[in-house]
Amino acid sequence: MTLRFDKLGVVIAVIVAYAAFFASFATFRANRIVPGQARPILEALPPTLGMLLLTIVIVCGIVALLKTPLILRLAASVAALVALTILIGVAGGFLTPAGNTFARIAPASGFWLLIFAFTLLLADVLTRLNLSPWSRVGVLVLAALAIAALLVSGSWDSLSILKEYASRADSFWAEASKHVTLALGSLAGAMIVGIPLGILCHRVEKLRAAVLNVLNIIQTIPSIALFGLLIAPLGWVSVHVPGAAAIGVRGIGTAPAFVALFLYSLLPVVANTVVGLAGVPRAANDAARGMGMTDRQRLFDVEFPLAFPVILTGIRIVLVQNIGLATIAALIGGGGFGVFVFQGVGQTAMDLVLLGALPTVALAFAAAIILDAVIEMTATMRRVGTA
Amino acid sequence: MKAWLPTLLRLAVLALLVVFITSPGWFEPLLKPLTENGAPAIYNQGSLLTLTLQHLRTVLIATVAATTVAVALAILVTRPAGAEFLPLSRSLVNIGQTFPPVAVLALAVPAVGFGEKPTLIALFLYGLLPIFENALTALTTLPGNVMEAARGAGMTGWQRLMKVELPLSTPVILGGIRLSVVISLATATIGSTVAAKTLGEVIIAGLISNNLAYVLQGGLIVAALAVLIYDGLSAIERYAARRMGQGGE
């Protein structure tokens, strides 16, 4: 039997070897803002666990390097990821001197590289398995449950990012709900206005170019400027329109952030509605007309269902983009995870930056996977329906 | 009469932009009503011209780097030797696009420190995706008969790539670069939250001191740059498409 190498495996093995032997696994800092000291795997963990982790990582690296069956690669990537995520928590407890509440233990470059390498392996396996939309969502739920279990069990409590969380647990959930409300609320607003506007643009050709041009130009205004520019008009509305202040319209805070996100969301929704409706086959429309359907029936029973996957693609773009952009709302007092990111940048406390950035990335990632699955399902349903 | 109207409009925007960033003082009376308590109407902590040039320089460096890497990667995964990486690279591109620019920027700071570097990294990573996606689409959807003809004419793999595949893909790749540049122009302003010298500095100074005139001038300069560069690149794209015999839009 000859050994054959997997091309991607070579890349993964190189990263794993570097991360395991030359990079540091965890960083020890005497308090939250001083520079840290690097600790490699064998110094960051009790000797037996350190050897165990090295062995697991090397074995899984070899599985990746050689041409091995998919199921073995899947097992290896999952095993390595589970070992890494559990043992980084152990390292936190091991490195913290007893009774010291100022010391901070953070995962270091070696840990992140190992996570990256084995996630790459897992992503490759999952891509090659060609999972159905439902199973992809299932994998996502499993991963979310595993992370939630680790968080609830308290095995990560000694890590710096969770220490930052512990001192702001209340505000974390308040900002989280603000973040989600901003992203989803502006999306809902954009759908309520954008889809009818898109239908109108599809029907009235003269309107199309004008509306799309204006929306295109709005997209070019940098987000921090658009947020800022809305402060003045909304402040004016809050003072002069009766009742506006009562429902929370103010110059600074959530209102300008909401309006800015709404404006950015309009282009993908309107443009995709127009493209989706334009892509409806003539034959379908002719048949509907021939059956004596009214314009209204045709819109709701024929055109709209056929255009739906394309419109959903626009909604996916908007949701992922809004989850990211909502971080900037913090600059104008709109709240959201950006509060932690910008506070962290201001205090050069990187754990605080991570506390804001990691949930944002996780939310955007989950939203993308779920909506991709939904899009694929509606698209296949349509194909089956018209075949 | 109608055909030259958009061109004239663009030239007017360009002229206005150049005049504004070289002698912003002329526009002071226009912006004065937006300020309160006698605050200055024109950004005075640095020259707008220098900031604009630095902004463009940051975007240019990031885009050139992103284009080189993205096109090279796309060529690699479309060769027989790299075909194994094709599905994975597609999913990585999809995953990469979900990372918010602010998060990339903030996470780059601990690795490289404050200033221009984290901005360049964020712009580079963010700019990679649209270019890679377009390059991949272009290289995988080349007309089969043309490729057959090139092979039949006895061209080697390298000759086919340089003389047939890349020239035919140029318009679509340019489209990716255009998207990437427009995103980068706006994203670069966020770089000023980590102390990069870009036009974002003007906007942030306005947000901090509650000076609407600063926010407006910073925002409008970036928007005008984006619109002009977008149009300019679209024109180059159409020219390239015509040269490839793909006949414009």
Automatic annotation (TrEMBL), chain A:
Membrane-protein topology: Multi-pass membrane protein
Start and end residues of each ABC transmembrane type-1 domain: 176-371
GO biological process: glycine betaine transport; transmembrane transport
A GO CC annotation given for this chain: plasma membrane
Keywords: Membrane, Transmembrane, Transmembrane helix, Transport
Transmembrane segments: 7-28, 48-66, 78-99, 105-125, 137-156, 176-200, 212-237, 257-278, 299-319, 325-345, 352-375
Compartment(s) of residence: Cell membrane
Cited InterPro entries: ABC_transp_perm/SBD, MetI-like, MetI-like_sf
Similarity section: Belongs to the binding-protein-dependent transport system permease family.
UniProt-recorded name of the protein: ABC transporter permease
TrEMBL record, chain B:
InterPro entries given in the database record: ABC_transp_perm/SBD (IPR051204), MetI-like (IPR000515), MetI-like_sf (IPR035906)
Keyword Hydrolase: no
Domain ABC transmembrane type-1 residue range list: 52-233
Location in the cell: Cell membrane
Topological category with respect to the lipid bilayer: Multi-pass membrane protein
Cited CDD domains: TM_PBP2
BP terms from Gene Ontology: transmembrane transport
Membership in a protein family: Belongs to the binding-protein-dependent transport system permease family.
Protein's recorded name: ABC transporter permease
